[in-house]
C-alpha cells in the first residue's frame, strides 16, 4: 500500500486525491480553471473527464516538481523524456479539459512546494528555478502546437469531401516530424467533425521504431543466465605507476566461471561466444563509458579476442571469439591482457569529464553533470544549463581552467575507504546514485581532493 493510499485510509477520504497533501493543489487548480471545482467523480459519473484531468494535472505537476528539484531536466531521452511527457500531458489537460489559460501551469509550483517542503526542504530553495523551467517548457510546447495547428489545417483541406476520417499518415507526420501529440490532433479533428485513423497512426509509429533500431545497428544480445555466478571486478583496478611515471597494467590470471555460445551455457568454447571470469580485469560498457578490449591467453598462447564487455545482472560478460583452433573449457585458467592504449585513452576521457564538471561548477555555469559518453578519441559531456549556455566568457573560463590543470600534471589520487566516510567528503561530486560495495576502492579524481586547495 502506497503512502498516499494509506493516508486516504487514515483520513477516511474517498481517494488519494482527497488527502490533505493534495487538497491545496486541487484548490489552486480550481482558481485558474474555468470549468468549476473538483468533485471527485470517476468513471461514467465523470462525463466530460474534467475530474480525471484535475487528478492528472495534480499528480503530474507534483511528480515533475520533485524530479526537477532533483536535477532531471526535460529532454528527448531517458528520465528527461519522462518529465517532458508528464509536463506536456499536464499542459494539454489544463488547457483542453480545465480551461486553464496558456502559460499558467507554473503557478502551481509554489503550492506543490508548500505541501512537500517538510519532507523535501530542498524544494524551498529550488522553487524559482522549477517555475522558470516549467514556464519555458510550456512556451516551447505551445509554439509547437501553434505550428501544428497551421499544418493540420493544410492537411484537413486536402481531405476529400464527405470523408469523416483524418488520415493516420498525416497524424503521424504531425507527431513524428513536428512533435504534435496525437491528443492534440484528435482534439482538432473533433472540432471539425473528424475522427483520426489511430490504427494507421500506431502502425506507422511501430514501423518508425523498427526502422530506427535497424539504422542504429542495434542488435539485441542473447539473453544470458548469469544467476549464481560469483564474479569479482577488483582486478580491473590492478595497475600502478612505475618509476618513470607510466601506468602499468599487470596481466591477471583467473579461472573461468561460465562459458556461453549464444544464450546457451556450454562446457567448452571453440568459436564465437561469451565467458564470465572469476576475477575480471576488463571494464564493462556502462555509465556512458565504452568497454575494455583485449585478449585472453593460456600458457602464453592467445586463445580468445575480447571484442566487447557488458554487464548482465551485475556480472561482467566478455564477448568475442576463440582464436585459431584453440579451445576453452570450464577448467581453463586464463591470463587477461587488456588493450593498454585503449584503457589509457578511456581513462583520459573519463578524467576529462570530471575536469569539465568541476570547471563548469567553478564558473557557475549550469547545475551539474547529466550524462556523458566516453570513447577512445572523444567524449561528450552533458550538463544542465541555465541562461549562461553559449556565453563566450563562460566557455573561455572553462577552457582556461581545464588547460591549466592539465598543464600542471596534477595526479589522480586513489584511496580506499568505507562508503559512509566517502559520502562525508565535502567536495565529492556524485551526480548519479549507484549501488556500490560498502567498502571499496574510491577513485578520487582531480575535482575532489586536489581541487580542495584551489
Automatic annotation (TrEMBL):
Q: Does the keyword Transmembrane apply?
A: no
Which parts of the sequence belong to the Alanyl-transfer RNA synthetases family profile domain? 1-454
- Which GO BP annotation is one of this protein's? alanyl-tRNA aminoacylation
Q: Which UniProt keywords apply?
A: Aminoacyl-tRNA synthetase, ATP-binding, Ligase, Nucleotide-binding, Protein biosynthesis, RNA-binding, tRNA-binding
Q: InterPro entries, from UniProt?
A: Ala-tRNA-lgiase_IIc, Ala-tRNA-ligase_IIc_anticod-bd, Ala-tRNA-synth_IIc_core, Ala-tRNA-synth_IIc_N, Ala-tRNA_ligase, Thr/Ala-tRNA-synth_IIc_edit, Transl_B-barrel_sf
Q: According to the UniProt record, what class of enzyme is this?
A: ligase
Q: Which family does it belong to?
A: Belongs to the class-II aminoacyl-tRNA synthetase family.
Please give the name of this protein. Answer: alanine--tRNA ligase
Q: Which organism is it from?
A: Strongylus vulgaris (Blood worm)
